[in-house]
Amino acid sequence: MSNLPKNWEYGKLSQAAHVVRGITFPAGEKRNDLAQGYVCCLRTTNVQQKLEWDDVYYVPTSYVKRDEQLVREGDVLMSMANSYELVGKVARAINVPQPAAFGAFLAAVRPTHAIDGGYLYHFLRSSEVQSKLREGSSQTTNIANISAGKLSELTVPLAPWNEQKRIADKLDTVLTRVDAVDTRLARVAPILKRFRQSILAAATLGRLTEDWRIARGLKHGAETTLQAICLPDRVITYGVVKLGDETPGGTPCLRTSNVRWLRFELDGMKLINPNLSAEYRRTVLRGGEVLVNVRGTLGGVAVTTDDMAGWNVSREVAVVPVDQALASSAYISLWIASDECQRWLTGMTKGVAYTGINIEDLRTLPLKLPLKEEQVEIVRRVETLFAFAERLEARLQTARRATERLTPALLAKAFRGELVPQDPNDEPATELLRRLQQEAPLTSTKRGRKSAA
Q: What is the pTM of this model?
């Protein structure tokens, strides 16, 4: 355990706070609206970054056996039974809008005069403490449980009272700013998604290259269907290979998880035996085909390369054998990936959401086909704009990773005594602990027992 700053002292959580377990009641007793003789009851889903009061239920007040089982201003509500990832999650009760109890899967960690409530909250939400709580929890099939007794034994670094207040105030200020930055960053990803959709819409509607087309005196594209621009000897068809038909050293087979919006992810490909099916040869790739996810993640699009000749596809993927003399595979992939075509293929424009893409719908997909030279220009412009979006996305991910690291780093710094300066005139924490030891405990940590007289 690291050394503490001067005038700090280690103590147990039981010396600084009381752990109060929540109430129990039959599930049939709860209701969604307030009535005479009922009280609001918080549950684990209400414990988010802040206490959420929009979705609460109400239970008879008779199940509140002790006044201490009502939420008090400044309490830290902790999830004591939850999934392993969420157990130990905390939120502070500030501006409590109505009298409220809390269920048995929660506990109120109630600060004494030895610790500032904000200081206690930030300590309990720190990465080190959250990890200790999870690691010390008992496990059932789907639930992790934190023992109130073990929680009370948690070691707490106690700063002098005045310094605790300075630390809590500083953390409130800087972490509010961090949360605000994180919220703004979270809004960027949907904007980038809409940006890409707008690019595809402009490309397929002819707006992206309108200036280029007018300058050259070219006409708008012809109206046709997807099957009409395929090779004469090949038809758009589903793959025929079962994913279970694997063999060491076989032929690579692309599946649904490999086809992701205009790019390939080949790390999950299967190796299949080419002699498994008499129909195997009809979907052997030659390079230049457009692949479309027709099951699972619908609508994902990719273009095969020449070095994939001889590969095959699974049944969840459709092969569009584009005739390169008529159309650019890259342009066709953009057309299929556009929002309008995706809605058409998945049934949204027909008012019915399909569980898969019908092969006949893919074959008859309406297609506006510009001249080949304009297709090439459209692809060039889209790729340029997509590359710009990808650079922004990479910078966004870097920024989000930085903000994710910032909160744990600030909390760790705070409880090492490095966030705010020490004041030698502050009363040492040892004096706080000495006074606490002279007082009788106010509350038992054992569930169901009344306070000591």
A: 0.74
